[in-house]
Amino acid sequence: MQVRGGLIGCGFFAANHLHAWRQLDGADIVALCDSNSERLDAAARQFGIERIYRDARVLFESERLDFIDVATTVESHRSLVELAAAFHVPCICQKPFARTAEDARAMVEACRAANVPLMVHENFRWQTPIQAIRRAIDDNAIGRPFWGRFSFRSAFDVYRAQPYLAEGRRFIIEDLGIHILDIARFILGDVARLSASTQRINPKIAGEDVATILLVHASGSTSIVDCSYASARSEELFPQTLIEIDGEEGSLKLDAGYRLSVHNARTGTRQISCEPPLHAWAERRWFNIQDSVLNIQKHWLECLRTGEEPQTSGRDNLKTLALVEAAYAAASAGLTREMV
Ligand code: NAD
Ligand code: 89Y
Questions:
Q1: Measured between alpha carbons, how far is 271 from 252 in angstroms, rounded to an integer?
Q2: Which sign, positive or negative, has the C-alpha torsion 45, 49, 50, 56?
């Protein structure tokens, strides 16, 4: 089955979506939309897509689409998702899905009422090494997991390609921590409570660039999510997430360079290379993320075909967004015991 998709928002990250759609069997992006003519024309030229729109409503009125891929920044997500629902078009929406829980719930409700699937483009859990960790746990390689650390520490200049990241009152939890919190949910399950602390190290940005979050999962496992864009290290690992999981019968460790060690107290240690494929259109710096874009889009096509709910449906993403909100609330309330 060949489905017809449209894409709204032809900025920095959308090129990855468009490359991945071109590589995947089963979907054609037949129309593009961006309110910025230069970006719209550049994407249309690069990907050979002739049907272009500056106004999303006109796109929906003019095209017969099987789905829409929204790759704009968060400010426009609610209006575009609600527009998709109004036209009964299944919708993918980039992260962060929404700025507030109220917006997110309204978007989920609009798609539910219109009976159209809604997936948040929460791609990090689709990275090759993260999927390998999930499989190792499902195969009972380390027994019941009881502790984890999900760590993303970098000093890569993300502000160059995404200048808006330097401008918001909120930064690393909303932009990047959201992915790492979603990975923590994916690996250790939903979260019962959390505490958090944030710092701003770079004086040139408006929001926080360091966050340390302690999670207690509903299963009883504990984990730490730590993120930084202020950490110059001997090896710049952007955008790798390093992970440690301890289980009752062993442990997992995802090190730099996508090297996964799986240790079982009875059977010993296995080393697995989880390096993602480097697609023809990908770049060395971003290839892990780029491959996960392909994987999540493939999952969407599979869900459209089978009618299954996407793993990171809008409904599911409400829980990841709730963690983001709770982390900011905990950090600002400072709910810790004073020791001095
Ligand atoms: P960008 O600013 O480069 O591009 C956004 C584009 O959307 C712009 O060209 C803008 O003109 C267009 N746009 C905005 N509102 C519109 C509307 N109502 N109608 C039509 N066009 C509209 O942003 P970006 O850096 O490409 O980021 C886009 C989203 O992708 C962000 O939410 C960001 O967080 C996310 N992102 C995700 C990942 C990931 O791995 N999942 C990585 C980077 C960025
Ligand atoms: O916007 C962010 C994302 O989603 O992945 C990495 C990033 O591009 C910068 O933090």
A1: 10
A2: negative
Per-residue pLDDT tens digits for 171-189: 999 999 999 999 999 999 9
Which ligand 2 atom is the nearest neighbour of the CA of 161?
8
φ, ψ for residue 272 (rounded to 5)?
Answer: -125, 130
* Residue nearest (by alpha carbon) to ligand 2 atom 3: 176
Q: Give the model's pLDDT for residue 340.
A: 62
Rounded to an integer, what distance in angstroms lies between the CA atom of residue 164 and that of residue 161?
9
Residue 325 Cα to chain centre, angstroms = 16
14 backbone dihedrals φ, ψ, rounded to 5°: -60, -25
Condensed to tens digits (0 to 9), the pLDDT of residues 287-321 reads: 999 999 999 999 999 999 999 999 999 999 999 99
d(CA 242, CA 8) in angstroms, rounded, equals 32
Task: Provide CB contacts within 8 A for 35, sequence distance 6+.
Answer: 54, 55
What is the distance between the alpha carbons of residues 183 and 131, in angstroms, rounded to a whole number? 10
Q: Is 158 in the pocket of ligand 2 (CB under 6 A)?
A: yes
Specify which residues 5 forms β-bridges with.
29, 67
What is the whole-number distance in angstroms between the Cα of residue 34 and the centre of ligand 1?
10
Instruction: Looking at the CA of residue 179, tell me the nearest atom of ligand 2.
Output: 4
